[in-house]
Amino acid sequence: xxxxxxxxxxxxxxxxxxxxxxxxxxxxxxxxxxxxxxxxxxxxxxxxxxxxxxxxxxxxxxxxxxxxxxxxxxxxxxxxxxxxxxxxxxxxxxxxxxxxxxxxxxxxxxxxxxxxxxxxxxxxxxxxxxxxxxxxxxxxxxxxxxxxxxxxxxxxxxxxxxxxxxxxxxxxxxxxxxxxxxxxxxxxxxxxxxxxxxxxxxxxxxxxxxxxxxxxxxxxxxxxxxxxxxxxxxxxxxxxxxxxxxxxxxxxxxxxxxxxxxxxxxxxxxxxxxxxxxxxxxxxxxxxxxxxxxxxxxxxxxxxxxxxxxxxxxxxxxxxxxxxxxxxxxxxxxxxxxxxxxxxxxxxxxxxxxxxxxxxxxxxxxxxxxxxxxxxxxxxxxxxxxxxxxxxxxxxxxxxxxxxxxxxxxxxxxxxxxxxxxxxxxxxxxxxxxxxxxxxxxxxxxxxxxxxxxxxxxxxxxxxxxxxxxxxxxxxxxxxxxxxxxxxxxxxxxxxxxxxxxxxxxxxxxxxxxxxxxxxxxxxxxxxxxxxxxxxxxxxxxxxxxxxxxxxxxxxxxxxxxxxxxxxxxxxxxxxxxxxxxxxxxxxxxxxxxxxxxxxxxxxxxxxxxxxxxxxxxxxxxxxxxxxxxxxxx
Length: 634
Fold this sequence. Notes:
The protein contains eleven helices and 21 strands. By secondary structure, it is an alpha+beta fold. Helix 1 packs across helix 2 (169-181), helix 3 (270-312) runs antiparallel to helix 4 and helix 8 runs parallel beside helix 9 (541-553).
């Protein structure tokens, strides 16, 4: 059971390999220091930060971000280390907030490698502080514990490092913040050296689209990682050095971008490295597109302003002077947008090359259904860290698709929306076809979840009151991988809901009593998935209440919902069901741009998983799952 800590409270750590997750709502710098028994940090080599992100037993993020995942292996720490402090600081010089009181309270969670939360802490009470010691992992009499600290510093990172006994903390803090600001970790390479006047040439490798805006005093504020300040000479051009895909280019020859490598990210295992790499690609695409759109908006705004100035001057409204001013304004607009497009094209080309390398290397849980990995599929022996629910893309390049990976176990249920909503693709289909596609999508998700869990550790129940989903459910039924026949009619709905509700109650009581092993003999301890089709048909008020209860309380004890429903069909219930819909992750059976990223809020188009036409991969995978259950007697 997760311990919700308050400042000063501690909690034992049951595992030595941990993940520390930080959610700040705004980009922050995350780091860690290793201290001795007195909490003193002997030197800079005992600090993990974006410029030096890896130490024995500790690995931190390589950039400022709103969300971080820090890897900790307590057994791999040097023997002299008795304390690991997790530090957060606001980056300076990037136009963001200067104190934690101006942003949402940071949230920190200590989890196991499977994502199970051990302890959480919301850092409240901060005001003028710009740096904070969030958590402390400490060793006491051979056992490790975590303590909620929340110790803020108005003097920023320098004051915090000085408090831990480091010499020249101001210089060290400046170097860390400079590394973040200049993007030494996953952002922008340093500007090229100045060259003699006679040899100056214009570089043709832009960084991000935001670099096409002129200078900081006229460019708009960006909600993403800021671009480098352009370097200019007396008569020389602006240097647009590509941010992170290649080193600073020399005039001759132009260096090629590095060859992408699958698994080129931090992590304890190859699967974790691939997961982090996919997440990094998602973030890169979001930020590059935001920079491009912001640069285009700036170009449009500048054009409007210059045209307004030209029209406001009576001397330039008519005649050659006015025409020349308007033509110059449009030419500058075209130049800025062309540079933005060139920069975006370079970033997208590099991401596309990375995707071509990463996609074939993904394990089954992360792979598309047309990946050859499914041809050699065997039931796994352990639960993966995430599962693929589909693909995401942006309109700037629709063929560049990022896998949508969701951590396991599921933290919330799924809702396959069989209604039309605002989707253009859904509007082209009739109601019956849309409902059929929604049920096919639900079966694809259920089959993948069955496939990625070890034998007997995942059970699927189905409620299909009218039997209208029989055709789509046929592969699951024929393979014998369901926990029982699909429940039909009001009686079937009531029976299944009562059974799962009772399971949630029993597990919750056992956990509250501190006796998770004291469950009734023969009770199925596997994760449970309930597919609900054709809601609210066959549901009375009691059944609706039970369904809401499962959606709210079920995920914490291993009971998950997969709803296939049109919200309009349940409109008679009014606002009573609003919490139900909000508690579920909405996905669609056709392409729809209803998902947003956590950085800049792009509207991402979600593409549901599909099986290759004429492929037998679904039946092959389900047959393997069924065979494994028979072999293990489950």
